[in-house]
Amino acid sequence: MQLGLKIENILNDQKESVFQSFKADDQYFSFRDQGISFSFSFSYSFQ
Questions:
Q1: Which domain holds residue 19?
Q2: Considering the entire predicted model, what is its pTM?
Q3: Is the pLDDT of residue 6 over 90?
């Protein structure tokens, strides 16, 4: 018998890309809020 638990992005990090230029404001051109995901698995085998 096997049990499994998988948690991804447990700190709820966000991914963002920023364009920076000399003497200009930073421009965000990519932003993703991925969220937290959980998965649970169970397996049983007969021998």
A1: 2-43
A2: 0.54
A3: yes
